[in-house]
Every structure is written in structure tokens, then in C-alpha cells.
Fold this sequence. Notes:
homodimer; alpha+beta; Arc Repressor Mutant, subunit A; 6-stranded antiparallel sheet; 3-stranded antiparallel sheet; 20% strand
Amino acid sequence: MSSDNKTLNQSIIKAFTVLDAFTNDKKEWGVRELANKTGYNKSTTYRLLNTLASLNIVHQNSNEKYSLGSKLFELGNRVAIYKTIAKSTNNPIKNVALEIQETVLLSILKEHQVFHINKADSLHGLKINTSIGSYQPIHATASGKLLLAFSDKTDEILKNIELTKVTQHTITNAKAFKKELTKTVNQDYALDIEEFELGLVSIAIPIRNRQQNIIASISASGPLSRFRTENIPNYISILKKGATLIEEEFKDFDSL
Amino acid sequence: MSSDNKTLNQSIIKAFTVLDAFTNDKKEWGVRELANKTGYNKSTTYRLLNTLASLNIVHQNSNEKYSLGSKLFELGNRVAIYKTIAKSTNNPIKNVALEIQETVLLSILKEHQVFHINKADSLHGLKINTSIGSYQPIHATASGKLLLAFSDKTDEILKNIELTKVTQHTITNAKAFKKELTKTVNQDYALDIEEFELGLVSIAIPIRNRQQNIIASISASGPLSRFRTENIPNYISILKKGATLIEEEFKDFDSL
DNA sequence: CATAGTGTTTCACTAAATGAAACGTTGTTT
DNA sequence: AAACAACGTTTCATTTAGTGAAACACTATG
Lengths: 256, 256
């Protein structure tokens, strides 16, 4: 068992486990339902929700179910760095999404993963279900491969990640993966055809600062059924429009 | 002492007390500094930060100080209702702020207080320090008086609030306050001259839906030194431009 | 009326959290 | 170079809070 100093506060762990259950797909939970989901006793769950409600972190609706409260919106707005970036990039990526007709993501490398700062959804019914603020594997996504390929810490990061198999198309062989990164640098874009999720295709290009260092990626994702390899130059062209606008805004940033 | 069922989880209370210390004014804290601020023992504070850091709710910078982490940004983005409204209203209120040359706020009534959904800062160095997601008193602010005046629950809310003195200009007499609300309805805007904060002036107008029910307020705030009563019609005109754009977006909403 | 499901409460018991003191590191002052 | 001040971090004995089973009260459904 870990020493005292590294023992985590269990009540806080439980509280955020409960909060994590609230997603865009399921915005409200009953007490017992949430207890089943988290594995916590229903009395414990009730007390956690009660405390969180008293702080406006969740609130109880008129149907007795609980949903996220305004306090998280406030706290989320204090994480200023991402809020500012999200705000500034809304229009460029929205325009790209309209033109490319797929979901567009703005992403950076963070903690050896791909972190999504902003998103503009496709208007199609069939679209990826990725959230702003979420992480995805670096080795199995277009954005991840692109950011890793151009990173100045590529070897260090490679030592710290596992090329785990996410789908049968995920590149798990180290040599093959390095070749993929070299190819990505050469062609100045990355492609992920079902490497992260079956039926899903993504294409990512770099966003550079004044010194030509990559600070983020912009990508488009959609189902394989709507994807044509002959359309790649067109996709890149549209993504570049968005990238250019974002680069103007962040040309003097070292990173996002 | 309260019964078992209403006893709040102290660890969660402490965790969010710690998180509340991180503001736009002070984004990073050392362990002892934060312990002094919150009144918690430095060991306790260290453990709280350690747990929060393990969840990416805070993170420790290279200078050993702690700041808010990406997880709050993610959780904040799940409070979809405010995020959507904030996103849709960014341009209108930004444009109003540019033209009016003061800080502009979009606000609603929530829990007998004024809740700020969105904000566009003035470019002046001297400007109000209000945060998105924060609450202000309903009786001592322009937005609050406006939203209360037009509310269909005015009397009920008045029974539940105290006309506490915030500055010497705050209206604390019930009769005088009711007259102020009547005047607000008649002139279709509200003014707060140093009622909430000395030296601060705010003017608010309504945002209406298709049924002409007020769903929010848009206001401008700045220092008394830059305020001229003869400019009120001009301020209202500019605010109305923003209100009109927002009304187009939310004309079918019953409330925000 | 019976049943099933919910949120909420109680109480005896269990586990977690706490704080004082000390440690190790870094930067500053003498 | 040594002493000092401030920091983050760790330890251990002690204190406090948190927990879960069982029961209650309510609502909806058949």
C-alpha cells in the first residue's frame, strides 16, 4: 500500500467520480442509478450529491434527478488559457466544419496524449462523439500522430507510451510507427483510417507559429463511408484555411 | 448540530474551498500560502492539492506552485446550457463592448441573484472585475433591478431577499425599492449609480423572447468618471443593437 | 390493493483524515 | 562559507468524519 503522503483523499475521488458520470449523452441521474453506475452505496451517493448540491456543483431537478450545476461552469471559465483559445478559434473551425461537412477539432499534445481544446460539430446525424476537454491516444489518432511527428520530444514521448492496439488497424509495431511519423512529416498531414475507431477516419494538419513550430493541430473526422482518398487535397485545402486564420491569432505563441 | 442526513462531506467542502481560491486575479498558489488563505493546516492543504492534482483538477507548475487544471475546463464544458448561450452571444456583446467602450454583461435571474452568463471586457485599464459564472445581488445592480422589475415573481422574490446595504447608495427601504422597480418598468432600463460598488455605474436593458417576456439582461458597466447622464440614450441605443441580435437567436426561449 | 421503484433517514460501526513536528531543498543574506 | 528563511513534502500518533445495512415514506403502475 502507498505511504501516507501519497494516499489520496477518498471523498474527493468519489465526488469527482460522481461528477464524471454526467456527460453530454447523459445529463441527469437518479440517486440509485448513479450508485449503480459508480459502484458506491446509495446512501454514500446520496450524501455526495447532497454536498455537491449545497455547493451548486450539481443541482436537483424538479423530477428529483440530479444534473451539473452552474458552479462548474464558473470554475471552468477560470481555466482561462483554454477558454481564451476556444473563444478565439470558434469561428475558424466552425467555418471549416461547414465547408468540409465533418466534425473539426483543435488539439494539442498534453501529458503524452491528444487534448481537444475546441470542436465544431458536423451537421450530419452520424458524427464522432468527442468532447472538448477530453483526451485521446497519441499513437492511434491523426492529430496525435501529426503532433508527435513534428514534436521535438518525439523519442522521449515514444519511450513513455505504449503502442497499444485500439483497433486491428492501429499501428503497434515500433518500426512501422516510426516510418508512419516520417511519412507524416514528409506529407505535412496525418491520416487515421480506423486506427482509433472502426468506421472512423480523421485527417489532421499542423498549426504553426511564426517560427514554424507546430503549436496545435486542426483535424476533420467522419465516417469511412463519406471518405474518399481522392478528396484528401480538398480536405487539406479547407483545413489550411482554418489553420491560417488560427495561425494569425497565435503566431507569437510558443505553444497552446 | 444538524442531523446525519444533512451533514455535508467536509473533504468535498475543503476541496472546493481550495479551488475557489484560484481566480482570474490569482491563478497560482503555493501550499503554505493557500493554507493561510483557506485556514487549513498546510499538511491538509498539501493532501487536498495532491488529490486534486492526481485528477487533473489542479496541476503543479515548474515553480512548484499550483494552478487550475484541464479537468475543470472539461467539466465546465459539460454544463452545456451556459456554454451554448455564451458561445452564441459572444459576438453581439463583444461588438457592444467595442462601441460602448465599457464592459458588457449578459445576465439572468438565478436563485434570487443575478447570474452572469457571458461577458465582454472593456479595453480600458480601469474596468469592473466581474467573472462569468459569478453571482451578484439582485437589489443593488442594474441587471438585478431590471430582471426583478419585469419578473412575474417579483413579490415572491422580494419576500425572500433582504435589501441589505452594500454601499450608502443602495436602496434599502422597501417602499423606495418598489418605486424604483416601477420606474424601471416604465423607462424600460435600469441604472445603478454606486449602489453596488462605489465609483461604479451600470445600465441594463431587457432581452425579450417572441412573447415579449424578458429572458435575460444586457448591461454595460464602468466607472462614474466616464459616465454622463446625457449619454444614457446613446448607451441604450448601443445596448439595444446587441439585445436585438441576441433576441433573434433566442426568440423562442422561455428563459435562459 | 399490491408491487416496484424511487429518494431520504437513522444508527452502530468502520475507515479515513488530520495536525504537529520534522525533514530536505532552494534562494537569500551576512 | 555559513546561517537563515521560506518553501514543499513526509511521518506517526491521534482525532474526526464517513459509511452501509436496514428501514421509512412517497409515487407510479398494474
